[in-house]
Amino acid sequence: MDALSRAVNEAQKHPRSLEQELSYGTAGFRMRAEKLDHVLYRMGLLSVVFSKYKSGTTGLMITASHNPEEDNGVKIVSTLGEMMPMSWEKYATQLVNVSDALIADSLKDIITTENIDMSKPATVMLAMDTRPSSKALAQAATDGIEALGGTCKNFGLLSTPQLHFIVCCENTQGQYGQPTEEGYYQKLSAAFGKLNSGGSKSKYRPQLYLDQANGVGALKMKEMCKFLGDGLEITSVNDGSSGKLNNQCGADFVKLNQMPPAGINLEPGMRCASFDGDADRIVYFYKTSGGKFCLLDGDKIATLFAGYLSDLLKSSGLKLNLGLVQTAYANGSSTSYITDVMKVPVACVPTGVKHLHHKAEDFDIGVYFEANGHGTVLFSNDAQKAILDQSKKTGLDEATRDAAVKLETVMNLINQTVGDAISDLLVVETILSQRDWACEDWDLAYTDLPSRQLKVKVEDRTVVQTTDAERRTTHPPGLQEAVEGLAAGYKNGRAFVRPSGTEDVVRVYAEADSQQNADQLAYEVGVQVYERARGTGDRPSPPS
Ligand code: G16
Predict the structure, then answer these.
(1) What whole-number distance in Å separates Cα of residue 273 and Cα of residue 293?
(2) Rounded CA separation 514/526 (Å)
(3) How much distance in Å is there from the Cα of 108 to the middle of ligand 1?
(4) What gap in Å lies between CA 68 and CA 63, rounded to an integer?
């Protein structure tokens, strides 16, 4: 039996049970886990075809990240650890939506269009998060991979960024690191150790309270700590031993509710951070001596990183251009600070790491972060070479050489393949330590405008269409004018509306000069969405 017939035959074990059309969105396919069996089987098939197309090892991650425990999802990783290219998303969508009988036709179509040599070998690295549904879905994916004759390397539980890292290492013959989980800990901990070799501090304390969302990040941070030695003392909270994944905890909960997660009794002087369910996002938070909860989100992390890298660039005498990439969710104050004070170019792109990652490649050093805490730094090949050359150059004064060596070491601490909560945590701790900063010092750069996010349930979220990096709607008619009219009524008012790519909702974002005004603006915009996009369920309620 040839591979395509076997793919059709094996599909009987994973029949398409759902009439609803699915589409490969912001983070692959994501929905209630019980609906995903055939999706995983078919993504197993596609990851093999994609591996043959790329002539390299691809990755398949099973996770629904920040979504509730009952959800699950899948995304395909390309050979350098980046997301599968957008030009392939249509194939994923097409393959998932055809009837069982048309699987071979759909595959043939992709193979012919992309001129793929099916005699090439294919390997797919598979990993999953800690959701109870992940194991069975991993079996469905494995069945798909093997039906098309691919080799499946199952890594079991990994954080999403660990899988991206390992895929990249595998395809670059170890140049990026060793393609194993241990290789990941070794690379990052070695760089962290070099950058944090002690010295007395007056404000920075190497102690962190870490909310791990009851997810896979807890297991992996525990492993990482074995490699870090006593360089950083971490108090683990929400480590999965009792609570439910992402329930009242995790980066998304803390960011959206602007409050500490369950399990952390926040007191002034404590530095805290939260991971999300698959450890690809991180936010920090603390409480002032006056008792105010303060969030240090992706925007604050981005400015911390960019400020540090920019100082190292100056001190090392390197002329490389540094840029920052954000989305519409970036707080208006952060964008003004980056442009007016840091004088760093800033770009705005639609939500989704794939968009930010792509844009960051335009710079020698591209820092990208979503406000929700998902981000990293990319160094172009030329930048990497220039930094390595400078760090090895003889005849430089000590300060210049020291800065170049630090840049090289930070590069090794950063997981450039994708936003990585563990790597980002180690970079934040390194910068705070080197600057001898407490959270308050970090937070001084600028003051966030108060903001509010809401979700509105509508009949069909795709009726909301956007343009200009999701900052304006083009459909339904009149919505954009209504949003602008409402925002104009508030000092520093800004609002936008977009359909979520990971949940069946429309998202509303608003910011204004006071929390009360941001809450009111978000509510008023939410009502417009509800009315103009055929809301279902509860109408947004006024802020209390
Ligand atoms: C995913 C994406 C992020 C995006 C988030 C929310 O995050 O990777 O880029 O910001 O979903 O997306 P949306 O607003 O479209 O639902 P994660 O951490 O859940 O994988």
Answers:
(1) 13
(2) 18
(3) 31
(4) 11
**Which backbone phi and psi does 325 adopt, to 5 degrees?**
-120, 130
The reply to whether ligand 1 has any atom less than 6 angstroms from the CB of 246 is no
Cα distance between residue 526 and residue 540, in whole Å: 6
CB of 276 shorter than 6 A to ligand 1: yes
Distances (CA, A) of 518 to 72, 189, 295, 443, 495: 32, 41, 16, 21, 9
Mutate-to-test residue for ligand 1 from 89, 358, 374, highest number of ligand atoms within 8 A of CB: 374
Helices (H), 216-374: 216-228, 251-257, 298-316, 332-336, 353-360
pLDDT digits (tens, 9 = 90+) for 77-103: 999 999 999 999 999 999 999 999 999
Q: What is the pLDDT of residues 96-140, one digit of tens each?
A: 999 999 999 999 999 999 999 999 999 999 999 999 999 999 999
Amino acid at 336: S
In this structure, the number of other CB atoms found within 10 A of the CB of residue 250 comes to: 27
Strand partners, 285: 272, 295
Residue 423 annotated among the catalytic residues of the structure: no
Q: Whose CA is nearest to atom 9 of ligand 1?
A: 352
